[in-house]
Amino acid sequence: MISKKMADAINKHMNLELHSAHLYLSMSSCANALGLKGAATWFSVQYREEMAHFFKFYTYLIDQGENIELLAGKAVPNQYKTLLEMVEKTLVHEQLITKCINDLSEQAVKEKDHATQIFLQWFVTEQIEEENNDRDLIAKLKMVGDNGYGILMIDAEMGQRVFTPPPGTTVMI
Ligand code: OFO
């Protein structure tokens, strides 16, 4: 049993996760256009992670007997000058997602909705990792500045990232 208010808030956030997926898929294509194949891989893995997050929310609402509502997606930017700009924008976006997850958690506490509180715990922890990954990359990119060799080293490292489906996700991704 979930309140209408809680279900609506989760539905809205589920759509934001889908927006995140589009944002990172677009960044993947922009990284590719800059000749940074490793970064393109990193962002495509990020895209798949966001789709997994989307499906976690989707499945939760379905399991709670709710009908999901897909809201029309907003267009995402497709022009970035540098990899640093992309990763900085990624961090800002993830900070917004963290705030949204915290707001959902607060609402679940207020409503004494224990099931939703437990469900959201995974996302609370996940957001620490998401922001941390971005901060690490920003620090490295600032360290190398305009040095092409340094950027290529970071690009090669980013290309090592592989997608690991988060626990409880289906094979829909
Ligand atoms: Fe789903 O964590 Fe990023 O947006």
Detail the topology: elements first, then pairings.
Elements: H1 4-33, H2 37-63, H3 83-110, H4 114-144, H5 148-158
The chain binds hydroxy diiron-OXO moiety.
How would you characterize this protein structure?
The chain is mainly α and 173 residues long. The chain has one domain (4-158): Up-down Bundle (Ferritin), CATH 1.20.1260. 73% of the residues lie in helices and 0% in strands. It contains 5 helices and no strands. It has helices at 4-33, 37-63, 83-110, 114-144, 148-158. Hydroxy diiron-OXO moiety binds next to helix 1, helix 2 and helix 3. The site of hydroxy diiron-OXO moiety has 7 residues, from helix 1, helix 2 and helix 3.
- Envelope shape: elongated
- The total tally of domains equals 1
Give the helix tally: 5
For the termini, the CA-CA separation is: 27 Å
CA-based gyration radius: 17 Å
CATH superfamily: Ferritin, core subunit, four-helix bundle
Low-confidence stretches: none
